[in-house]
């Protein structure tokens, strides 16, 4: 009986052992890794200091909250996968950033500035590590070289700016860079170009705060000659005051460009407007610059660059054109009247021919015009009177 009991105990222990091992193996095979297939990555500006500080944010992902879970983030500007590692210790040493279950799922701006500044796209890899029953980790690559869009550059006039500290600080200048840049490179340089601004339209655009005013200033600077240009160390103690003559009241542009080290970094340039000033000291005049926007920057000198306009000539009047006469209408012709028909003449009667034997030679063949009886009587009276006078004269002559 005792032997049977021992056999049963051994069988029970054996089956329990087999079940436990099967449960452990099932647990190991049932790891549900984080799904990054719909991940949304973007840069978010903290906006705390006026300088762009872009955190890399991850959204649309359900992160694993199981105790011991870790995420190792790797970033590169190359498509080639960076050196990672096979153990959690090596991964932690090589990763740019590490999350656990309580971490905010971002990569902070101070770790991303370098990659924003470097040339090329930003690629992101994530390795997930899950703890096993024996306190060892199982790892898997859950995001592979996904590209995230770099943030756009600020507008011209707000990327970089030089401040002039004045005679008390030995006329040093301080460069403020508002864009993300690789501040780990202590040997990097920046280039400066200074020139006068005499274009009225450019100055007026800045005075009126035009939307593209500094784009116009940049275009002007790139085609104009410089009064001074020099390269300075980014982390050095620099000054340009005293290197050339600064005319009080004149307007100057200062162009700044970070050295891209033959394409290693993206092109980062900016421009700003300044005015020459001169502060009278006991024995000398301290010449420096006043940047646009400060209280003692003046627009009083802009008038002298206003283009002189010639008096507008009155446009020559064109000779007035006589109104075109309408062609005279020809008088309407009256319809031609048919010529009046002359009354038909009655044929003249031919004179009657008197036979010669009956013809009276004392009678004229022509008709005597009919003058009337009164005319004949008047003529007879006159003839009678004349004959009477002649007769009277003759009788008188005889009687004498």
Sheet of most strands:
5 strands, antiparallel
Radius of gyration: 64 Å
Number of helices: 6
Number of strands: 14
Helical fraction: 10-25%
Give the integer mean of the pLDDT values.
82
**Helix/strand class:** alpha+beta
How does the overall form come out from the CA principal axes?
Answer: elongated
**Which percent band covers the strand fraction?**
15-25%
Separation of termini?
246 Å
Strand order of the largest sheet: 11-10-12-13-14
H/E element sequence: HEEEHEEHEEEEEHHEEEEH
Low-confidence stretches: 14-28, 349-360
Model description:
With 400 residues, the chain is an alpha+beta fold. Helix content is 22%, strand content 24%. It is built from six helices and 14 strands. A five-stranded antiparallel β-sheet has the order 11-10-12-13-14. Strands 4-3-6-7 form a four-stranded antiparallel β-sheet. A hairpin with a 4-residue loop joins β13 and β14. The longest helix is centred in the first third of the chain and has 28 residues, at 2-29. The model is unreliable at 14-28 and 349-360 (pLDDT under 50).
């Amino acid at each position: 009986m005792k032997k049977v009991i021992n056999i049963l105990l051994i069988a029970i222990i054996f089956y329990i052992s087999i079940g436990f091992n099967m449960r452990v193996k099932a647990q190991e095979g049932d790891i549900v890794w984080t799904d990054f297939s719909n991940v949304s990555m973007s840069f978010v500006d903290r906006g705390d200091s006026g300088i762009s500080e872009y955190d890399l944010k991850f959204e649309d992902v359900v992160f694993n909250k199981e105790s011991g879970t870790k995420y190792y983030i790797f970033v590169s500007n190359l498509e080639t996968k960076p050196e990672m590692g096979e153990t959690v210790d090596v991964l932690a040493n090589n990763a740019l950033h590490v999350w656990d279950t309580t971490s905010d799922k971002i990569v902070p701006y101070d770790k991303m500035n370098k990659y924003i500044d470097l040339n090329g796209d930003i690629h992101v890899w994530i390795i997930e590590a899950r703890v096993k029953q024996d306190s060892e980790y199982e790892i898997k690559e859950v995001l592979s070289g996904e590209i995230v869009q770099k943030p756009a550059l600020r507008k011209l006039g707000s990327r970089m700016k030089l401040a002039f500290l004045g005679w008390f600080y030995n006329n040093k200048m301080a460069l403020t860079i508002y864009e993300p840049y690789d501040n780990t490179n202590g040997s990097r340089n920046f280039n400066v170009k200074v020139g006068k601004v005499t274009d009225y339209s450019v100055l007026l655009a800045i005075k009126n705060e035009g939307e593209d005013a500094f784009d116009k200033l940049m275009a002007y600077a790139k085609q104009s000659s410089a009064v001074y240009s020099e390269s300075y160390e980014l982390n050095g103690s620099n000054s340009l005051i005293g290197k050339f003559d600064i005319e009080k009241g004149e307007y100057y542009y200062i162009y700044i460009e970070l050295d891209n080290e033959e394409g290693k970094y993206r092109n980062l340039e900016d421009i700003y407007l300044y005015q020459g000033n001169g502060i009278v000291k006991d024995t000398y005049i301290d010449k420096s610059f006043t940047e646009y926007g400060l209280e003692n920057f003046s627009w009083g000198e802009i008038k002298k660059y206003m283009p002189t306009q010639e008096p507008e000539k009155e446009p020559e009047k064109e000779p007035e054109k006589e109104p075109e006469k309408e062609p005279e209408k020809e008088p309407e012709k009256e319809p031609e009247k048919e010529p009046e028909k002359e009354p038909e003449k009655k044929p003249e009667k031919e004179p009657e021919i008197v036979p010669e034997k009956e013809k009276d030679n004392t009678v004229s063949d022509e008709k005597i015009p009919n003058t009337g009886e009164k005319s004949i009587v008047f003529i007879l009276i006159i003839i009678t009177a004349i004959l009477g006078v002649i007769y009277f004269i003759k009788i008188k002559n005889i009687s004498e």
